[in-house]
Each structure stands twice: as structure tokens, then as C-alpha cells.
Amino acid sequence: MMTVRFVAAVVAALAAGGGCVSAPERRDQSASEEEECIGHLRAIYEAIQAYRKGHQDLPGFLSDLVPAYLPNADSLVCPVHRRTGVDQLYQLDDPHIYTSYTYEFSARPVPTNIWGGSRMTMKAWRQRTMGVLGGGTPIVRCHLHKHVINMSFDGEVYFSDTNWDRLPRFDEKASRSDYRPDP
User: Which of 12, 63, 87, 94 has the least CB density, counted as fewest CB within 10 Å?
Assistant: First the structure.
């Protein structure tokens, strides 16, 4: 399990190395907001795992977790959103409850702003992606920091830009066309 000190060191290293380009309103945040956000992603991940155990499937939306698996719906809102009112959901908003996190395995069709869209659901597409790139595929993401915070299907937190699959650990495994959603 990552310690707060480790997370702060990773955040500082990313910032020192240029990190990812982000909107100006997100640049003045504190490390504590990232730590809180990571805590939310961990709580969401644990709730998804409990849901999977009880239903033998993933939830269609993060709202399916509230209140039985995620009693505190505040965990679905990033502290940066609470401070700024900004969100970046890429048309992956939950139809039943506000969340500032993108759930990559949702029941929504792949939206047009992602690879031109598809009738294929995000869940079906991400399952295909996992078949090619493995369990590092994000299950929940936050786009409100200097870099995107990803919670992987396997429970790992890592940082990237919007295109997480272009990190060397994934980019070397396959061509992006190998897991592109069907039109």
C-alpha cells in the first residue's frame, strides 16, 4: 500500500519533471487534495470489488455502489471539484448521481469524443483493452489534477496524461489499433 510520503514524492517528481499539461485553475492545488482524491479512488475501488463479489459482475455506473457498497457519496467528488466547481468527465457522467470521476467500465456507449465513439459500451471496450494491455487498465480516473490519477483494474494507483495507454509499460505491449472500440 502506498504511503502518503510516497504519494507526495511521486507528485513532486512529476511536477519537477514537467508533469502533464493542465488547466491553470488546477495548478495551485495542494498535495493534500491529491492524497484525498487517491483515498476516494481507493474507497471506490473497494466498493467495486465488494459489488463484484456480491453480483459476479461490475456495476453499470458508480451510482450502483451508493449506499450499499459506498455509504458516503461524497467519496464520488474530487476535492478539486469541490474547490473549483470544475469537472472533466468526457461524456462519461453518471446518469443517476454526480461524480467527478470517470468510470471506465460504465454501461454508457463509448462517447464520440473518445476514438470517434462506438455503440460498444465502455465496459465491453475496456474488457477488450484489458485482454490486450492487462489489469493496469484504469477502472476509475480523475482528470482534475496536474496529471490524471488512475486506479487500475488490479488496484494500482498511477499517474499519466489523458492517454494512459501511451505510458511505456503499455505502449510496448500492443498497437493502439489492437484495442480500438468497434464503430
Answer: 12
Contact partners, residue 118, CB within 8 Å, separation at least 6:
109, 110, 125, 181, 182, 183
Question: What 3-state DSSP class applies to 47?
Answer: helix
Residue 74's contacts (CB-CB under 8 Å, 6 or more residues apart) are none
Helix H or strand E encompassing 160? strand 157-160
Query: Model's pTM, two decimal places?
Result: 0.83
How far, CA to CA in Å, does 120 sit from each of 31, 152, 161? 37, 21, 24
Q: In terms of residues, how long is the chain?
A: 183
Cβ–Cβ contacts within 10 Å for residue 146, how many?
Answer: 20
- Boundaries of every domain in the chain: 30-179
